[in-house]
Amino acid sequence: MGSATNGLHFRAAPRGQDTSLALKRPAGHALLDPFAFRAGSTSMPLPRCRIVPLPAEQVSVEIDNTERVRWHFGSNAPRPFFYPFNGPSGHSLTRMGHPGAPDHDHHRSIWFAHAKVLGIDFWSNNTEARIGQQQWLAYRDGDEEAVLAMQLGWYDGHEPHPLIQQELVAAVRPGPDGESFLELQSTFTPTAETLELGQTNFGFLAVRVAANISEHFGGGTLTDSEGRIHEKAIFGNASRWVDYSGPVPGDKTEGITYFDHPGNASYPSRWHVREDGWMGAGICRTQSRVLKRGAPLALRYLLHAHGGQYDHDRATSVAGAFAKRPRLVVSKSTVKHQHHVVAREAS
Asked: What is the pTM of this model?
């Protein structure tokens, strides 16, 4: 059953979805088939990466029966978000809110927002603007990755129709020794013919790290792809990625590396980072942008929850693999009991 608030329409997550059925891929099919049976197998074992819909409009993603990240899309929040995003030790590497500023409650772990959409503030909690999940499109379990796709609407709080339709596809992949990767692919389509995104430091993908990892409140360190360290050296400069690493409970060190993608319009992005514990790649850091309905804005980012201190050589390798990884495509399903399917483009 759905609910509506200020013209927003939300749908609760389903209790579960059977992904054990499989069909062979038709000859010449353009996408990699996520439902192919293993040769000679009479039954399909449980996949390593699983999506677990939960009550209260939440979806958990597990790897080897351990939660790695959770998606929150309830209508009581001004915008959806991911929390927790767990490191190899099982502790969240992100947090809800600013450790020392109560007026920063809009900082919700990992989230999408923008400060100037037609001049409207979708970033803070000070306006009636809201981002809401309109529907989930597809869930897919697998040994290599679990994928969830959903459609979000950006509402100004006054009109019943959204200003922007955002298709968000999130893929969670296992890494070694309990590490994980959260790949986020978004397509932003204005409902009008054109829509201006104003120049701002704020938008689209933001990450608020745990206090213990931040430079100011904890023992962490900010590092970028060019070898610069700390807020003063990194802020406003172009980088291919930024890392925040620091201590976690259990006398260990873990961190998040946030990768920009070479296909993004602002690559290499100029970064908005803070020593108090947050980082964001700026799509409009130096100039405004015009969204076009006929040419939607597509953005891809990767978050790596890793063990140990930042490793430049490893980050370089991860960035190279991310650049080559095929896009995820959501399409109408021809399989019964499934409205949509999501799969990687064939390379």
From this structure: 0.87
